[in-house]
Fold these 4 entries.
Entry 1:
Amino acid sequence: MVHIREPGPHDAAALGRVHVAAWQTGYRGIFPDEQLAGMSVEEREQAWTRILDHPSRLGMVRLVATLQDDGPVVGFAVAGPARHDETVGELHALNVDPDVWGRGVGGALLEAATDHLIGQGFETAVLWVATGNVRARRFYERAGWRDDEVEREEEVLGVTAHERRYRRDLPADAPS
């Protein structure tokens, strides 16, 4: 069973570990090997410490997933108003430890993040996914997100990512 909660400062180390593991596995063959190999758990932990030390922006939510009530963090998601259009919700990030891929963690995080966006009153949500990340694209498509064929180049953790935008209409009256 997947448990979802908001993270606290004590979660920074686990978030750093999950972030690096997810990227090094999920983006293999998409981003340069040397960039992925150079990712530092300690650097990501420090970044998460800074993030968690500040309240989230209005309408934003940070979520972590565990497989037990007080178990280690195995995934995270961030959702809230879109960066470029605050009338639209956005899934800003979703990363899961590769050791638990296929166990429902990503789906539970996606559902919780989507429920948050619905609760914030958004009628539409978007997310950006690396064009070459076929696994992630299939995951989002199975969950009802659709590629709307908008592309961009975005620098993400020092790497230029070629991304596609996915969109989903959100129900106004009930969680996803």
Note: Residues 3-169 form a domain with the Aminopeptidase fold (CATH 3.40.630.30).
Entry 2:
Amino acid sequence: MRALLQRVSRAQVSVDGDVVGQSGPGLLILVCAMQDDTEDQATALAAKIAKLRIFKDEVGKMNRSVLDVGGSALVVSQFTLAADTSRGNRPGFSNAAPPEEGERLYEFFAQQLRAQGIAVETGQFGADMAVELVNDGPITIWMEN
């Protein structure tokens, strides 16, 4: 699985003008299931993200996790993280999991974050979504598992 994390002050995702998910201080997580990804990989990625120390401690050092600060997460599916730009000018997305499997693993990943104790809201898989965020830092981290 691939994920792009952004530490945010707030984030929200809308479909057709209606907010379907939002987060206060915490993380915006754009996630993509890749071909042959498994539930074990989704579980491991969720556990790593939950413990990733990218939030400031009392002296301003990035030494706390989203769990430590009581932050929340907005998880948004984004198959374009699978983009292959090695040939030509048009990205290819054949490395992404098929839609049914991608949706299943996306939902499973969000569930695994919740199991870690994080309040999680999600976007709408496969929808044309508008994502708004205030990046805190800015802190943006690419992860792959």
Note: The mean pLDDT is 97.
Entry 3:
Amino acid sequence: MQNIEKNLNHIRAQIVAAAEAHDRDPDSVLLLAVSKRKPASDIRTAFEFGQQHFGENYLQEAQQKMRELEDLDICWHFIGAIQSNKTRDIASDFDWAHCIDRIKIARRLSEQRPAGMPPLNVCIQVNIDHEDSKAGIDLAEVAELAAAIQDLPGIRLRGLMTIPAPRASFEEQRPAFALLAQALADLRQQGIDCDTLSMGMTQDMEAAIAEGSTLVRIGTAIFGERTLIRLSALSARATWQPA
């Protein structure tokens, strides 16, 4: 518990320092705690120390935690790859989905968002470095997909998300983030109402903030190294899961 509090305070201080160093308002940068493969008890502890936004990659694991933590006012972000057979649950259980990379998924989320719920916030995932190992669209495709998404009922296009290839230095990290920031500015210039740059993790957070990130995704630096956890018996297939 003490480590989580200490780690949260350290990351928050880093965000403030990075924002101020680059003439940003620290309050314009949201900290998303990536809690995949961490127990619900860790999320509860982080919540007690003021953390409200949590990101999960695995649907079944996230749903189990949601049940255990239903007494808390948590904002849940789905940050993993979205398969067609998962869209109904994501649409009904989450507040955000960060990895939209095709119109089919956006339409399914829109159609399956339950009536009476606010629109699901979504970000388009951009594969900024054209890496075969990562999902996402090319920058050249962003405007077309954004235009197709923006008027879908049930979801709200909030902005763009990327995970660049690792780079060693602050100066080397900045250009990829600058490209995404320019893409968001271009969308806004075209009249598409979006406000979110979901970019930056522990190793490149300052560079992302310098280039306009509004949401950074931090996991291990808050919760420590991931360990084996057991999903409770949602089905006979529940097994030990690797970190």
Note: The chain has one domain: 2-234.
Entry 4:
Amino acid sequence: MGNPVAINISNEETWPLRNLVLRPGRDLSACQWPGDTDETTQHYGTSIDGQIVAIGSLYVAAHDCAPGPDVWQLRGMAVDPDHRGMQLGGQLLDHMIRDARDRLGAATIWCNARIRAVTLYERAGFECVSEPFEIEGVGPHRVMRLALK
């Protein structure tokens, strides 16, 4: 197995893992989200031997927890089940944070984190800024925020 490499990917390249991990059993159209094709949106993947095994996306989007300019929403983090336990999610998240800060000029990143992923985001420096809430058909989440400036 080759070394994992973080790369920018296309919107369409996120769909298979979104479907497998985040929207299982649903039509592929459930993996096509508002803002995916915006000029500013960034899609990232981790590739091993040419196969995308982890994904995540960043969208320009302010939130009540992060008002103001240069605010980005992180969405769609997923790791292929066959590649879990390799720290690929954390490595990709670190890459996305560096890119958001250094290339995109982000001041803040926020996300709706699945409860089971809260510790992943906490290890990267995010803080919980909401009580748990339910996203219908997806499950329990918490809003998390990371200040970059």
Note: The chain has three helices and eight strands.
